[in-house]
Design goal:
The complex is a heterodimer of chains A (900) and B (123). By secondary structure, chain A is mainly alpha-helical. In chain A, 66% of the residues lie in helices and 5% in strands. In chain A, helix 9 runs antiparallel to helix 19. Chain B has one domain: Response regulator (Rossmann fold, 3-Layer(aba) Sandwich), CATH 3.40.50. Chain B is globular, with a radius of gyration of 13 Å. Classes of the chains: A mainly alpha (900), B alpha/beta (123).
Amino acid sequence: MISGPVVVAISIAYLLMLFAIAWIGDRRAAQGRSLIDNPTTYVLSMAVFCTSWTFYGSVGRAAQGGLAFLPIYLGPTLVVALSSVIIGKMVHIGRTHRITSIADFISARYGKSPVLGGIVTIIAVAGIMPYISLQLKAVSTTLTAVLDWPNVSSPITTIPVLGDTVLLVALFLAAFAILFGTRHIDASEHHQGMVLAIAFESVIKLVAFLAVGAFVTYHLHDGFADIFLKAADNPDLRRLFTLQGSAYGDWVALVVLSMLAFTCLPRQFQVTVVENTNRHHVDRMVWLFPLYLLAINIFVLPVALAGRMAFGDSVSPDLYVLALPLSQGAEALTLLVFLGGLSAAASMVIVETIALSTMVCNDLVMPLLLRLRWLGLSSRADLSGLLLGIRRVTMAVVILLGYAYVRLIGDSYALATIGLTSFAAAAQFAPALIGGILWKGATEKGALAGLLAGFAIWLYTLLLPNFARSGWLPVEFAEQGLAGIEFLKPYALFGLSGLEPVTHSLVWSMLANIGAYVLVSLLTGHTALERIQASLFVDALRPTGPAHGRSRFWRGTASVAELRALCVRFVGLDGADRAFAQWAGQRGIDLNNLSEADPDLVDMAETLLAGAIGTASARVMVASVSKGEVVGLDEVMEILDEASQVIAYSQRLEAATAELKDANKRLQELDHMKDDFISTVTHELRTPLTSIRSFSEILFDNPEMNPDQRQEFLSIVIKESERLTRLINQVLDMAKLESGRMTWTIRPASPRALVEDSIAATHALFEDKGVTLETDLADLPEMDTDADKFMQVVLNLLSNAVKFVEPGSGRVSLGLAADGDGLRLRVADNGTGLPSDSLEKVFDRFLQVGDTMTNKPKGTGLGLAISKTIVEHLGGRIWAENGPQGGAVFTVTLPRQPPS
Amino acid sequence: MARSVLVVDDEPNIVLSLEYLLKQVGYDVHVARDGEAALSAIAEHRPGLVLLDVMMPKRDGYDVCRTIRASADWADMPVIMLTARGSDSDRQMGMDAGANEYITKPFSTRDVVEKVRHFLGIP
């Protein structure tokens, strides 16, 4: 037996240590050297999930129901493992919109609805505040157990209030919550000291539980195997190892319930979303939090079995954790376990109180106060003091009410079952919360209908029967239903029987909640503001989502001075100045020169206020100083449709971007080619022009020139003029061909006749140079072709061949033969042939092979390029090769018909 | 020889006109049809000035000009670039290569004669 004063002194010392830790945390935060800005502390603070109800109660449940304690932990494990996307999204939204609580979150999502915020707050207070009592009761019960061992059953109600250590603990916790929960009014600054203390407590309760687990398993017994073997000899205990057949439904229900509770309990929302300092801390949660849960549960079954074996029914299973070390006289361990339980209770009470008081203040009291004009709130200079006052009073009231509950109904059935009952209450937030970030179509009325329906069923099937079984309502209500109507039996509503009360309640309340939520959402429409908020929440993680331009939805102005004065009233002069200066700094704006606030600044001010008084009230306050409204629903739809189209397009755009890049590259190449082309054309035009001008000037300046010379020079002028004309024509041809503006006249024509016409046209060239032309022309049937273009190709090949052979000895052979049902034209010469690397390039524009030949007749450099374009347009091919005896061979193949 | 000009161009008619023009004024004229021929003609005839086309096979005018400037014997030899490319950057390239003058085709014959006279004096 441990002496009372020692226990009390140690408890108080421990609580004082929490104060010190929180104080250090706040101090470091103020110095900018945050101690909690790391993922491990963040995850540890989430372990506020493990309250004294689980610290002591897990073993209790395990001792009576075997593995039945597990679903409570499997749920959160599943949530963090499977839906970190949802939590990550909630955290992101919470940070962007400066969400202060789960009520604020739901209110903000559904058009900043004050009604929704209020309803959520009421449900939370009704469903969860008694849970605070349960924590205090646990402190009381365990304290009694430690002090009065082995007499553990003296009820708290017999202890005088004034001498009650639990009251002392409650007062300490209230003081802690007030001190570290309301130091700032701006939620975005977080309660860093509080979070640090909570994380510390998570470590203490884990260490304590592991210590007692190890003590029981390895000191009292010989390890896990030993305990399980001993327990297996007892048929009563063996039953605990296995799941009973009928329990599967309850298992699933409990897993689902704890999943929803983990997401929706106000204290979980507080530490996960509101207190989050860095969105990426969520990543650590995915594995560290399940690990924590595994560690704190690993000894649950051994301790439960050892307790059953040691005490049977003589000690409440909920006290096994404490009773086992106590009965062995292990005083230090007993104290550690007590402190672990105190940690679990204290952290829950503190966080829940802060969360509830924020909700009560921002979502219940403020909207009401702002509505009461006679209070003159809208004209009071500084409201931040009032806000803090409201929160402090709320905290004190919440904790003291909790204490009063314990004293009044401490041993009632209602309080004993409040754990799962409050889980079920929190679960009612899930449809509106999770639906709200996934489904844009959800409306305020839908959320309201769902919440009210779910809450009503929860009340009827869980809370009221619990009251009845506690004796506050006629017990017939629980057993026979309202007015004895069979269909309205609270535990077997509409004839659904055979389920555990919690499972039964969850099934019906969720059915009603989700049903009403979806149905009413589908039947009702959005207001403009709702539509905006829905979009901001659901598309929060989209990089092209509308969040980046939410000020677009607000049109109108406010005076900067008024806006600033408003912010000063709620967040104080320092806070307001800092926020305004930061806003101006980021935009490079001098606030002194700004009198009219633009929508962006108004939006900033509203978000700032939202962090202090909640989204709905912030909206009301900003609207009171600004002229203009949120744009109409039609326009909102337009903007959002635009945004969603943008999102839809963005994926296509990404694909298109790649194509565009390619196209751009091609365009640049084309542009480059065009520049080259123009530069080359210019060069090619200047060359004959130079000769023409030079000789014209020479002729002009020398009228006395001898006639032969004059004749020679004049003939050069004429030839160069012809060259210039040819060049211009070919450049135009080329341009037309390439732009597709060339007109084609496809008619049946005899290939042989066309080739013969071409030969006739080049006859003079061959004559002049003394080049022999050998022909071998097959008589082919008529083909569909453009006669002029076809001849242009043949002429070009013939005149090229003439150019590149020696005068006198030059020989050119021309062959025309069938090729399938098309034709094959072959022009070979006995010139020097082509360098092998030029066989393909020879068809490039302006590439003139054999430039080095002196006195060669200059071509335009376009002939082969044009020929190639023509041949390809007619569906054929043209290529160059060197003949076996040297000399170039050009071959053209054409199909019977050009491609359509 | 101080009064001789080397005309370098791959266009026979341009060479012909320049040759006629400069001979008429009284200079000795040598011709070359590409960059390599130009360099051997310079070595052989040591002309007082080179009229140098830019776009030529084998070695272009810039290359020839740089070679002239880099050689100890010919570094001072006046070079007038003849080119069918007219842009400022082309002109700059010519100047960078070491040309003394830059004439754009089609040129005025009087202009060419005048520029040659500027370097070689009246023959």
